Amino acid sequence: MLAERTERDYRYYVKRWNLDGRQEPRAWVAKQPSEHTRRCARAALVWWFRTELGQTLDVPSIPATRRVPSAFTEQELARVLDAAEVVHRRARPVLELLYATGARLNEATGIQLEDVTTTHIILRNTKRSAGSGARVERAIPLSTRSRGAYMTLRALPPGRLNNLIGVRDQTVQGWCVKLSRGLNLRVHPHKFRATFCTHLLQRGVPVHEVMRLMGHRDITTTMRYAAVTDERLALAVELL
User: Fold this and answer.
1) Low-confidence ranges of the chain (pLDDT < 70)
2) Helix (H, G, I), strand (E, B) or coil at 120
3) CA-CA distance, 237 to 137, in Å (whole number)?
4) Cβ-contact 109, 90 below 8 angstroms
5) Residue 82: what are its φ and ψ, rounded to 5°?
6) How far apart are alpha carbons 68 and 230 in whole angstroms?
7) What are φ and ψ of residue 217, in 5° steps?
8) How far apart are CA 197 and CA 123, in angstroms?
9) Is 28 exposed, middle or buried (0-12, 13-18, 19+ CB in 10 A)?
10) Which domains does the chain show, CATH number per domain?
11) For 48-86, how does the pLDDT look when each residue is reduced to its tens digit (9 = 90+)?
12) Backbone phi, then psi, for 196, in 5-degree steps?
């Protein structure tokens, strides 16, 4: 049984197909303007043919395009962090923490005071492991940057939420929206994680070590970020 929202979305696409005169399904799916809508349109028609007509619809699946995650340049990162100081007193140290640990936003909002030791930050609210479904913790070594962000947050009065950063996911997302508008630059929480990974690879950290720090289960996920290091690799080859 489909979730209510999924069924509603599917019926929306079936309705559009009906309004378009029930064109040949494969051709109609191919006409959709984006990869996302093509995938949704195909899934909706496959579902409708199976549940309403008892037929199997032969429309090829549409593989998702895995884009290279965007990252800040050093100059862009500095601009964003400087601008964050006027957005909210917690904004800069929180964004510094996201960058310096590579934490996902929900991992950062899950950090409790006791999760920070003298040497590491423990990220507990991570993705579930394949197979067992158990949550997998990972420890990120404290750097000068992450330690500074931690000390700044500790020095502030308690926030609305009883965690290290004192705020919810939505608050951090709101700060990023303000920064995007003010700087005319795309800013979102996950971009700090992408920048953490990209900068490590650009500095020559072995990909297997970056994989562990990112908490990736598959090295191919980490390798997506390696595409932005081509210039560094080209310079290395010139040394031969």
Assistant:
1) 1, 64-68, 125-135, 227-240
2) strand
3) 37
4) no
5) -65, -45
6) 13
7) -85, -20
8) 16
9) buried
10) 4-53 (no CATH), 74-236 (1.10.443.10)
11) 999 998 999 999 887 766 666 789 999 999 999 999 999
12) -55, -50
Tokens representing 222 are 């980490």
56 in Cβ contact with 49 (< 8 Å): yes
**What's the first-to-final CA gap in the chain, in angstroms?**
60
Strand-pair partners of 141: 120
Indicate the SS3 state at residue 206: coil
Instruction: Specify the residue for token string 């409790």.
Output: 112
How many residues in the chain?
Answer: 240
Kindly report the backbone phi and psi dihedral angles of residue 64, in degrees, each rounded to the nearest multiple of 5, phi listed first.
-75, 140
How far apart, in whole angstroms, are the C-alpha atoms of residue 31 and residue 229?
36
Nearest-CA neighbor of 46 among 36, 58, 35? 58
Question: DSSP state, 68?
Answer: P
Per-residue pLDDT at 236: 52
What confidence score (pLDDT) does residue 225 get?
78
Ranges of H-type helices in the chain: 4-19, 25-30, 35-48, 74-84, 91-101, 105-109, 144-155, 169-183, 189-202, 207-214, 219-223, 230-237
Which residue do the tokens 């939505």 mark? 170
Is the four-CA dihedral 158, 172, 120, 82 of positive or negative sign?
A: negative
Residue type, 64: A
Judge contact between 114 and 100, C-beta under 8 A: no
Tell me the two tokens of residue 3: 């979730």
Question: Look-up: residue for tokens 């310096």?
Answer: 100
Q: How far is CA 92 from CA 79, 121, 198, 216, in A?
A: 11, 18, 20, 26
